[in-house]
User: Which sequence fits this backbone?
């Protein structure tokens, strides 16, 4: 088992997993959303796809045992364990510089799309585009009329999920920098998160 590693607040980290390895992603303070992506190692054009994953599992939120599949319908990861209330999101796009502009922010704002690029660059990799992420610990309730809202997380400090690699892959994570909407808690304060590979 590796040492626990930090995803700094407002930043991203990426790591390679070999088949059968597991990654434990920890909501250290209970209030931090972690945007999560995965790519096939050796072919960045094949990536974990939320639309294909929803079609495979017939769930909007992932459940333990669910397959996280690629845009080519292959199982990349298994959502193996969930020690949280199970509130995650597969619908909302990663925040980016244009999103913050729409929210009224002027100038550059840290964002998950750029965190993905920076974290992959540390491994000498580059994404073909920004796929829609698995937004771990993100609370986006939906109503019968189809409406969505952005709500604070419902987690406790130390809640975590475990993902198991089925094929060699690269997992990238962003401790979401959103500080305008309350998705990182009512105080709108992004924090660090942690992960561990075993």
Assistant:
């Amino acid at each position: 088992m590796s040492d626990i590693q930090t995803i700094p607040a407002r930043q991203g980290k990426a790591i390679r997993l070999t088949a059968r390895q597991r990654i434990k992603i920890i909501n250290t303070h209970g209030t931090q959303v972690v945007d999560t992506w995965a790519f096939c190692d050796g072919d960045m054009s094949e990536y974990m796809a939320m639309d294909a994953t929803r079609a495979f599992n017939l769930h909007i939120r992932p459940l333990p045992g669910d397959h996280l599949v690629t845009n080519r319908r292959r199982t990349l990861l298994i959502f193996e364990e969930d020690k949280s209330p199970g509130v995650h999101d597969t619908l909302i796009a990663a925040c980016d510089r244009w999103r913050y502009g729409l929210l009224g922010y002027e100038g550059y704002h840290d964002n998950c799309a750029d965190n993905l690029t920076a974290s992959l660059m540390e491994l000498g990799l580059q994404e073909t585009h920004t796929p829609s992420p698995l937004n771990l610990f993100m609370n986006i309730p939906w109503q019968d009329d189809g409406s969505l809202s952005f709500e604070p997380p419902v987690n406790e400090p130390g809640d975590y999920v475990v993902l198991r690699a089925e094929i060699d892959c690269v997992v990238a994570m962003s401790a979401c920098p959103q500080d305008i909407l309350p998705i990182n808690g009512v105080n709108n304060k992004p924090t660090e998160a942690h992960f561990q590979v075993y």
About this structure: The first helix runs from residue 50 to 57.
